[in-house]
Amino acid sequence: MTTLQSKSLAVDLKHQVAMMAAAATNTVKMLQEGTRLISTEFAKLCQQLDYGKTEHVGPLVQSLVGLVTEFLHEHCNKQEKTGKESEAKHKKLTEVCDQLRLTAAMQPPNKEQLTSEITELGNKFTRIVDNILIQHISVLVGVLEEPASDMALRSALASLTTLSLEGPHLSRLVAHCSGVRALLSICLESRSSSIRTAALRALATVCCVVEAIRQLEQAGGVEILSEMLSEETRPEPEASEAAAVLAQITAPWVEDNHTVHGLSEQLPSLVHSLTRLASTTASCETLLLSAAALANLTFMEPRTVWPLLEQGTAGKLLQAVKRRGPKVSVFLQEQAATLLANMAAVPESRPHLAEQRAVVALLCFLQIRHSPLQRAPEIAAAERVQQKSAIALSRLCSDPTVATQVVELQGVNRLVRLCKEERERNHSDGVLVACLAALRKISANCGTKVIEDLDAMELVEPRLLDSFLIYSSRQESYV
């Protein structure tokens, strides 16, 4: 009887924990929906004040205060553990709402006082919402630290991944709740590959903000990722997610993230592992993540070029891209072009890149054209492929041998066309500048005959600015 009771209790506990994780996710989503409505009202009110239209302020304040009051009733008063401090904050927010109503009712309204009180209301409301979010995220992190079952752990991991995808603010709160450390612990301690994979996926979504990346590096996350990637026996989905985390923490678009502690020490191992993964995988997604991680490493750590040369990464990556055939992803081509452009910035790497047929690959990349049927991200990626390819060619053509090779492969024709025909480069001035630079490097090393034959001397003879102004898509901006 005791055994049966204990089993029943265990089942109940698992169910309860799973329900808690699901409830936390749903509550956070409901909170976000409520805050979006309030944020919209805030924006409307601030806009009216900026325009000086105080006649609409009264109704907007009533609407805003009504939404805030309703939010407090729906989400704050139902909290089981509000505490005296939280109650005091809620009371203070209510007082600010009441005062704002009175100020808005004044005739005429005092704009300076209104602005001050609206700002105070916004700050206090944000802090209250963050406190509620932290409570619910802490529940999920608690499940990670002491899971009652694999099911509960998987549920919490899925919830954290979903929440982090909602935006950077939630990722910061996850980091605030020590979520990154908890996820790394799972990567180290879990015996299940699928759970480790899920933890890495959650980690990649959370690490879109510098606060999470700092927590990862403090916990030795780079070394953990390096070890996971170096083990050839690990299942590919796990290695793929580890590459995704690495690509995320080194992404150049993450603000204030110029270096990651521990990265330089792990460069040889990381480049070796990522090169192997890119060379052997049959998965397009894994190849893209590996290529992105390698390309991002060249941004953050310029010394990455030396292990890249040692491993022959450029040639192996280009072969992997070639194997994808004519339907290769433009995003994969972008990462390959980025890697080549960054490597070509180092003079010592240029002979190696030429040997690896980088010039042929770059000229193929230049042939990419955007299509009206493509989505906006694909069109933007196609522009970046053209720009990065032209930059790489410009750097490689410092070597007269490479410049001659570009001429022989009729690369000048494509560069000229990209300069002269705006549609070919989707009206991108960035592509124009890169192509002009490449043409000037080629003419300096090979002479201007090939350019004269194409009736394009205006691209190389005047100053670069003059050539740019002739074909810029935004000529009116420089008049």
UniProtKB/TrEMBL annotation:
It holds the Pfam family Insc_C. PANTHER family: INSCUTEABLE, PROTEIN INSCUTEABLE HOMOLOG. It comes from Cryptotermes secundus. It comes from the Eukaryota. Gene3D superfamilies: Leucine-rich Repeat Variant. One of its GO terms (cellular component) is apical cortex. The lineage of its organism: Eukaryota, Metazoa, Ecdysozoa, Arthropoda, Hexapoda. This is Protein inscuteable homologue C-terminal domain-containing protein. Signal peptide: none annotated. Residues 37-479 form the Protein inscuteable homologue C-terminal domain. GO terms for biological process: apical protein localization; asymmetric cell division; establishment of mitotic spindle orientation; regulation of asymmetric cell division. GO terms for molecular function: cytoskeletal anchor activity.
